[in-house]
Amino acid sequence: MKIPTNLVCRSGAVRTVSRLLAGLVALLLVASVQAQTVPTISTQPSSATVNLPGATSATFTVAASGDPAPSIQWQFNSGSSGWVALTPDANHSGVNSTTLTVSAITAGMNGVQYRAVAASTAGTATSNAVTLTVQVVPAFTSAATTSFTFNTAGTFTVTATGQPAPTLTVASGSLPTGVTLSSTSSAGNTSTATLSGSPTSAAGTTVALVLRATNAAVSTDQSFNLLVMTVPAITTNPSNASGSLGETVSFTAVASGYPAPSFRWQRQPAGGSTFVDLADDGTFSGTATGSLSIPRLVSGLNGDSFRVVATNAAGTAQSASATLTVVNSTVISTLAGKAGEAGSADGASTARFNGPSSIAVDSLGNLYVADSSNHLIRKVSASGVVSTLAGVAGQLGNADGGAGVARFSGPSAVAVSPLGVVYVADTYNHTIRAVAADGTVATLAGLAGSSGSADGAGSTARFAFPSGIAYSPDGYLLVADTFNHTIRKVLINGTVSTIAGQAGSQGSVNLTGTAARFSLPNSLAIDASGNVFITDSGSHVIRRMDTTLAVTTLAGTAGSAGSVDGTGAAARFSQPSGITVDSSGVVYVADTLNQTIRRVSAAGVVTTLAGSAGQAGSADGVIAAARFRQPTGLAIDSAGIIYIADTRNHLLRRSGVAQAPSIGVHPQSTLAAIGGSASFSVVASGTPAPTYFTWMRQPAGTTGFSVVSADSTYSGVNTATLSVSNVTSAMSGDRFQVVVSNLIGANATSLSAALGIGTAPVFSSEASASFRATVAGTFTVAAAANPAATFSATGLPSWASLDAVSGVLSGTAPDATGSPFTVTLTASNGIATNQTFTLTVLPAVLPPAIASAPAATTINQGQNATLSVSVTGTEPFTYQWRRNGTAIEGATAASLALSAVQASAAGSYTVTVTNSAGSVTSAAGVLTVNTAPVITQQPRSVAVLSGASATLSVAATGSSSFSYQWRKYGAAVAGATNASLTLSGSAADAGNYDVQVTNALGTATSAVAQVSVVSAASAPVITVQPAARSVVAGGAVSMEVGAIGVPAPSYQWRKNGAAVAGATNATLSLSAAQVADAGTYDAVVSNSAGSVTSASAALRVAARSYAGVYFGTFASGQGSLAVLVREDNSGVMLGFISGSSTPVIGQSFTVNDSGAFSFAQSSGVSLVVAGTIAADGSVTGTTGGSASVSFSANRAPAGATQTLAGLYKAGAASSGASAQIIAGPDGRAFALVTAGTSADGASGSVTTAGAVSVTTGRNVVTASINASTGLLTGSVAGTINATLAGGGEAALGLQRLVNISTRARVGSGDGIAIAGFVISGEESKPVLIRAVGPTLGAAPFNVSGVLAAPRLELFRGATSLAVNSGIAADRAAIDAAGRQAGAFALGSAGTDAAILTTLAPGNYTAQVSGVSGAAGIALIEVYDLSTAAAGQKMLNIATRASAGSGDNTLIAGFVVPAGSSKRVLVRAVGPGLTPFGVGGVLAQPVLQLQSGATIVAQNTNWTTSADRDAITAGSSQAGAFTLSAGDSALIATLAPGAYTVLVTGTGGASGIALVEVYELP
Fold this sequence. Notes:
The chain is mainly beta.
């Protein structure tokens, strides 16, 4: 008990007062002892007992007497402070009265003593001490239940409190055997006793006990449950399960135990090794029960294992595992049509049907449909395109005929034969029809509109609403004659018989043939064995008829409708209609009124394949998820796909195998403006199509995605498109992805896409635009925005439209009515920005009209010309001039000015004038360009007998009339001014003749023709051999042979040795050569003196032309190339393989008829090139050798540079550099430059003015082509630096080295002078050869030591052709020829030597010696007297003579004529002559090339030259022999002019030397 502090304080005061009073009382007693009585206790207080809880107060009463009457003071003693007087407090009241009340008693006040003190002046009296006893009722503090495990030792401590501590006992009930309650032990007010032991009885029960806690106060009982638990045991393990995708499967386990155990299902994925606890989610349910359910199987669960763990307080038990097998499900999808939408449209996605009731499939996968309510037969191609095979939609009837003529009436069934004939049960016409592949319809059996049951042929047969038809492999038809309740057989010839059932007798009897009975048989199918399966709709059963016509019931019970899966008669159907059978004999049924597709095994086991009984709909899906609306037709193809006529949905459906979803298009990152919106979309596929989408978000700067919930920011969270609204800057960098599911296969998760923050649109386009009435106009509205904005407009006129994405405003205003229009433009990217826009319509524009066309114009070559046009209409105009239909670059004005016009500019000129209203092309103005004469037929050399006439003739082209002047040895022949010259045949007529043809623009001089007058006949001698020719089939070609003989010879051309009829002229001409004309040709030339046969020449006739210029590249960007193919299919290829710095140079190859070409390149690098030109102008090929790479090219189209197209070659005048350029017709060009072993090349351009520009990787090539001359000048700068001069093939063909002369010391033996030269081409060439000695010694030359009497002899090989040692005999002719050649005049003495002759192509030497072996200085000259012709050259001049110093210097001269530079190889050979048996050679020739007094180049030993490799290559190219180490040589490119070559000996030495000049390409 807690004693109040105020009581303690009062106690001390009492003691003090008592002592004071004691003395006072003693004094008073002495005074009045006889008047007072000492107090006495008359009634003692009694102890009190209080039980808690319960009473909370107690009272103590005392009585005392005395005189005076005593006062009462109660005291207490708690055992710690002795007796203390009480004062009133919360626990005590009446402390000074006879009754003390103790309140709010607590257990802590137990044992407190109380007494009363009675006091007066007479004394005191103290009562007996009494005790307050406080007892607490016992209370159990331990649980009222415990568990022991059967046969397992356990303990449980029972605890109770009370005051005093109670005793614990079992008041009622019996403890299980083996369990006892120990004796009670106490600690303070708490008592404990222990239940312990191993229960051996009462297993699996709860033992009810009453425990009692007893103390002095009271006994307290506790109802106590003792559970005798048993450990769980699995009594039923889960079994393996299987199911189709989308189906529901479950695993069940049973476990015993007490208390009942809880369940925890676990899963181990296929191939895994650990079981993981499951929780209820979208995939699993019942994970904490005895039955685990998987509501919708997905492929990802296949092969997984499942087990359950059963747990209670006694322990756990684990089941055996069970395996789940997931098999592919049948998925129903829509093939064609739209659910609930009837129609007759053909097409793919647009196709519509109206009550399709039957379907058939052919071997190619085409479907045929009886579209009943449309009265049509439809065809669905294997690619899904629907077409109408026969009938007209909505038009019923019975007409036979073509597809658009035929009519049907509610056709209900179709079948197709292997030949593609479609057979139709035309139900409401009561007929069987046949439809050919082209849609033609014929009635096979029955009579339209006449129902009945008659057997017979064709129209004599009768049917009653036939609804089913099947084609037998044996070539006949079976018909379900529904309202006759029979099965009919129809031969292809139309003969009908009844094979099962009896007309008009309805029932369900299983017998054979006509003894059997049916009730409204609807459809039938035939298996591979000939068994027939019939949907007996009125009986709700599936019937089977074997080949003996025995009818049995396969499944269902007649007259009992329903929807029950099961075997045989246990199954139920509801008016089944469509039926089909697969290759294994499994039957499929359209269970029409059950809205399902059923499967019937060969044993009659019926299962539901798709749909849910009694639930109509149109949903695609797996098995029970699919929905149908009265399906009535079925077909199955060889792949096992089932096709369904879903009649009341107006659909064609098909089965398929479930497939997990896959993502075809992933979400794309996008931008949005702050405050704007954005969207992310996914495209996914699967079977069935995915319909479950879960969008996930990963905020910027975080990891992991979480599911997006729909709110004011996000919508479409479970669709294929997630929309994000009210974008904030905090969303920048957020990423989104979507999980796609079709609840079948494993889910597919997309790639993530990011959301970026953009800006609001700001218009950047003008706020106004003008359109012209009647003219289509456009204006582009633009706005800067991130992301890009889309556009819209309000207030546009009806004729205008605005493209939302491109912003293009377009339209054609009919007139200016309503203009201007005020339009509000809106640009939006989630935030809209508006712009007020003004659209003005201008009045209509008048189209251009030609007022005056370009006039016909004639000018002379080189003059200027102007063509012009005048136009009416609305300006502005644009102009484009064309020549011969080809646009002229830059000719875009009303006038076309042409400067320095050349012949190539002649043609027909038109101009197209355009404005916004249209365009018009003028009439042509023809420009005629007068040109100087061009000789097209040269005079021919002729030999005649003395006195016989000879005629020379010439032909030329050019403008205006010609004048002619024949010349002999360059001197005009009086009166010879016609195109032909006839000579009398006198001796004086002999000589060399040419003719000058002149008009106002110039003069052309012919080739020289030699007239020989002989006294006796001479056999023909060939002067010009036929040359090989190539031509494309259809082209013109000619071969020529030149011959002299007296009398004039006749000619006979031969092909492959056989005479060509009519080919009896010197020229063989084929105006349109054919492939058959190809062969080897020669000519037999005859006269009375003999005959001679020419050399053979091949004529190649190509089947097609590949002519053109082709530009292309090497693979992998390794460089570019160009190919030029000429009209005869000969070609040139230039290229540069930059990857290996390899030039490609194919100078001459032929493209064969199949377009193939090849060539080997050995100069510089070794390459083998092969390519093919395709018919479309594309080129492909490869290179091998030093560089292996493929290439491709394409033919350049005709264009403005057509007249410049071709191959151009140029060289440098001061180095060994050269360039080759192929110019194309379309403004493209390719250039290849070389210098020694260095090369570079690339593609570039050429303009109509002839300006070539090519920039390679290391050089810049610029050049100019003169269109009139074909010559080229230019330069190359970079790693190769050179000034270039050259020309096209035609121009270079006319250039030649001319007027070759050599001055040397002439001796005897090896000391004689020998000059060599070569005549190229195909025709003979008039040549003047002079050996000048005496004339050199006279003024103005004054050379000392000249050869006094030169002797000149001309050789071809070892044959001497002519000898001369004085010119007196032919002085006049030689002088005339010298004047023609521009040579100096010979001395009058006539002691110089000269030969004037005509030489055929070949190699020649002119030997000069002294008469009688004399020696001296002589000049050897060779002059070409011919007119330049392509391919005709005198080249490779060589002279062997003695060389020394001073006047003995060996000097050779030659001329490079005006036009283009020439690249020449000059050699001075001394030691190199020794192998040829020449003695006394010049040991160390010194070679010097001069132009006038200027030294151009020099060399003392070719092996030390920087051009050593080029000299070696050039010598090989020219066919020259190999130089020795001591010889000299140089290569130079020389501009037009006269040049001399000086050869001297080192240190004044002399000896025999050979000087050679070779023209190089």
